[in-house]
Automatic annotation (TrEMBL):
This is ECF RNA polymerase sigma factor SigK. Coiled coil: none annotated. It comes from the Bacteria. It comes from Streptomyces flavotricini. InterPro entries: RNA_pol_sigma-70-like, RNA_pol_sigma-70_dom, RNA_pol_sigma70_r2, RNA_pol_sigma70_r4_t2, RNA_pol_sigma_r2, RNA_pol_sigma_r3/r4-like, WH-like_DNA-bd_sf. Pfam families: Sigma70_r2, Sigma70_r4_2. Residues 36-103 form the RNA polymerase sigma-70 region domain.
Length: 195
């Protein structure tokens, strides 16, 4: 099948001749389709390129339109309008569909890129915050007494109860409770936590 040519002599075939060609195309006449193609391809291409604006894509869409005319020849109804009008309508719809499809694909790609960028940014940001918070906690823990630091570390990082901390450190339970309370107050103040 020939490629559509943007510079052709459209308009030289009379509407009655196009209608007769369309009837022959409906019956599967390939020569009639070739004549129809020559008569309509330039017009179809012109319509498509005005909507799509990309020459390569316009050529593809114009080719699809011409194939549609071959396949859908039985759907053409002369009482509904001329062959030219029917072909123009199909060309315009196909061109708009291509533009919408291309825009939807671009939107999906842009959204995906934004999600990937945002996810990467969130992960890096979260990692930085975690490291900064960990460094601040370590710095603040260094400001506690040895017993406070050991008690807080065992309770919060080791998951031990007050009683288990007291047993582990071989220190009376009331002393552990007092040291932990004082240690937590100092940690809170050091970290700038307000209540």
């Amino acid at each position: 099948m020939n490629q559509p040519h943007p510079t052709g002599s459209s308009g030289h075939t009379r509407p009655a001749d196009l209608a007769a060609l369309m009837q022959q195309v409906e019956r599967g006449d390939k020569q009639a389709f070739s004549a129809l193609y020559d008569a309509l391809a330039p017009m179809v291409f012109g319509i498509v390129v005005k909507v799509v604006r990309d020459r390569a894509q316009s050529e593809e869409v114009a080719q699809e339109v011409m194939i549609d005319l071959w396949r859908q020849a039985a759907r053409y109804r002369p009482e509904a309008g001329s062959v030219t009008t029917w072909a123009s309508t199909i060309a315009h719809r196909r061109a708009v569909d291509r533009v919408r499809s291309a825009q939807a694909a671009a939107d999906r790609e842009q959204a995906q890129a934004a999600r990937e960028h945002h996810t990467a940014f969130d992960e890096v940001s979260e990692e930085v915050e975690t490291r900064l918070a960990s460094e601040q906690v370590r710095r603040c823990l260094r400001g506690l007494t040895e017993l406070q630091r050991q008690a807080v570390t065992l309770a919060y990082y080791g998951g031990l109860t007050y009683r288990e901390v007291a047993q582990t450190l071989r220190t009376p339970l009331p002393t552990i409770k007092t040291r932990m309370r004082d240690g937590l107050i100092r940690l809170r103040d050091c970290m700038g936590v307000t209540t």
